């Protein structure tokens, strides 16, 4: 087992390189920016669709109004993602552009929108047909964004522009400078659209869907689902945010199949697609990557080591809402050979069972896009239309995950018990000689306070006597704004307790570009630490302190408000 871990660890630089690919990051961040629209539309679609599950027929006027809101939000998500993806990709490219050469991020948004419309819309009987502007047009979103930003980069680096006299105001000159890249971007999309319609007879959006449909069909199979939810925890196990690496290329299918399932239900047919966004969230990633929903309960109620009991109590609530970083880094699970097999096998088993329930036992495929933080069993019941079989399915998943995790957790628990017994003996010896048990500056993750209970304790940082002349504002970034909120809350609580003038906010990496200039310091959670060099160029330019944290250290700070304050003061010194 250790040899397997060593081989995986050797390839960690490759995994980090993949996760830092600017195109994958642009797709991920583009969806993150559009997520409020997706969640907003989901509220209205639930209100419109769920009454039908219970045999309640809404008035036609109300139903039409609710579906109109959905159509004008989720129905244009492809257009919105084209704009947000282009903007994020332009921002990433600007970090490596030659000095004095900058891609206009507002202009690429406009060009990407026009390009997307050319690639995804058509006219039927003389009327504007917007049927491909939603999830069916997502692949066109990526193509239009990638073409646009690269065309801008090409023109700007080679100075292909209209130069105005220096007397012309800068805002007007910028508009003229963008004429050529804007025109070339849109013309490129127009040529692609022309070739598609003349040689294949369909809009470009449908060509891409036809070409990639065998891939999506393969991903919808038992084997395809198993591979997807094998790769996601494999990446996470070596400290790379797996969903950010694997899911961007599947986003079209994940959201498109969700909408397809809903339409099948409305037409009286069985929603049979398994590969959907919430199927991944609530089945393959039940309780977070690695299907860890049941793990804190195993720690609390069935394990004897004080460390696992403490970690279980600390992580149980976050994990219920799919924020499992406290568990991953405090247990730890990441790069822990005892958890390698259950962490990557449980998600695979879950999705295979889910596929069987949908295709063989008649359970509905997931029809709604619910917030990813919805507790998995509840989300499964909601997103499948309150079927009794979905309740049975949720209970079965918890039982299966328990049976997979328990033997490995028990083995790890025995090791920790032996270590704790050894440490307790050493502590007694050290106490007799007057020596310190905990080395200076090191962290004691779990320390017993009484039989059957434990708390997380730390060695104090050296007291920071520096006076703060002004308020320090801190932005904490993680992958999905989950654990970052925990540390931000700890900092706010610590500031109130100590009287130190520090304010803190939380965010997801990728959504920070517009707001980062408002902060004095940015703290990177361990799961986004691989982006350190990417963001450092921005923080250096803006004069912001960039702080990188490690796994156990980060989780510890979320649980110790005063320690979190000392940490920030020490780093700012």
TrEMBL record:
Residues 471-573 form the PTS EIIB type-3 domain. One of its GO terms (biological process) is phosphoenolpyruvate-dependent sugar phosphotransferase system. Residues 8-408 form the PTS EIIC type-3 domain. Signal peptide: none annotated. It is a multi-pass membrane protein. It holds the Pfam family PTS_IIB. Keywords: Cell membrane, Kinase, Membrane, Phosphoprotein, Phosphotransferase system, Sugar transport, Transferase, Transmembrane, Transmembrane helix, Transport. The keyword Transmembrane applies. GO terms for molecular function: kinase activity; protein-N(PI)-phosphohistidine-sugar phosphotransferase activity. It is found in: Cell membrane. NCBIfam families: pts-lac. PANTHER family: PERMEASE IIC COMPONENT, PTHR33989. This is PTS system lactose-specific EIICB component. It comes from Candidatus Atopostipes pullistercoris.
